[in-house]
Design a protein that fits this description.
The protein is α/β, with parallel strands linked by helices. It has 14 helices and 15 strands. It has helices at residues 6-19, 40-49, 79-90, 104-112, 114-131, 148-162, 177-180, 194-200, 216-221, 233-243, 283-292, 333-345, 359-371, 391-394; strands spanning 30-36, 56-64, 70-72, 94-95, 98-101, 135-140, 166-172, 203-207, 252-257, 260-268, 271-281, 298-299, 305-309, 349-356, 376-380. Strand 1, helix 2 (40-49) and strand 2 (56-64) form a beta-alpha-beta unit.
Length: 395
Amino acid sequence: MRYMNSKHFFTFVFLLVLLAPSFSYAKDLEVSGWIPYWRDSQGIEDVEEHIRDIDTVFPFVYTIKSDGSLKDNAGLDEREWQQFFKTAQRKNVEVIPTIMTGDGELVHTLLSNDLYRMLHVLQIALMVEAGGFDGVDIDYEGKKSDTYEYFGTFLKELKGVLGKKTLSCTLEARTPPDSLWREVPETINYANDYEAIDKYCDRIQLMAYDQQRADIKLNNERKGEPYMPVADPDWVEKVIKLALESFDEDKVVLGIPTYGHNYFLRVEPEWYKEYTRIGALNVPDILDLADEYDVEPSRNQAGEMSFTYIHKDSSFKFPRNVRAPRGTSDGNEVAARALAYANKTGEGVTIRLVWYSDAKAIRDKIELAEQYNLKGVALFKFDGEEDQKVWRYLR
């Protein structure tokens, strides 16, 4: 065996040290997610089964009453939750409850008044301390632009009271203006003060889901087929890149959906005109629905899964001579026939569309979080009804 002489050895070490900064090392993503209060027993069971793969859990349980006090919708003092908290502590899993509201008027009233805001901050701090939690997750959606300044002040004061406890801020995804408007307004009045959020929030969770028709550029690019995504990776990447212009990547957590939606889809000549949401669906119910209508869900343009069908209560029937183009996927068969029918007859028809996020779609977003070196990913939601194959990608 030949060995390097000392001269060659020291040359090698010198080059190694010199080049070391150019090497890129991917950090491990933190894995987190929300347990919803409406399926808390199933969510607890789901998390406990996979707890070795989870870093942080958000009990999605608190809302705000009209008087500004907190409402525990799940009963966190009950035995089931208390046992779960002990398990999480043994496994070094953080527990950070979420406070959620979509009442922008209430939030403005609470935060714009110095006394109300102070009482709200103290209530939150007492909840965190009494529960022995690792912090709190603030998910105040639908805020008014008038609340911009007050929300920043609220975060500053809340972080000051929490001290070393984690202040997590969950935000609606912000679509880049040139993808949101055909003509970008000269002035955009946002509700979230990104500067304050970056300064006071320890983790910033982007709800990169429920995209639907938010991105007019992608709507146009994908117009050949139904397009109503939960989260198209191309849109999610835009959301990430815009967020990183304001936020430290070490704070940003990518929110990823595990569910889907059912829609009425109005098909008119030459286009899929109108989508009306019927409701949210989880994967088991979606697959049961596909079985009921004997249709195979297909991978769509957004990298998610979807299928179309005509509801059994509908009186509409396709004429035999109206067919979908050759090569149409099974999941898109009814939509393609509906478009062919509308083009042939000039008459519109309403069908059903189901669109959802499966394990592969989730993996695509995990890969984006890795690509942009984010802090982690957070799944909405852990309730046992996510595509169970996703755990192989989170492990």
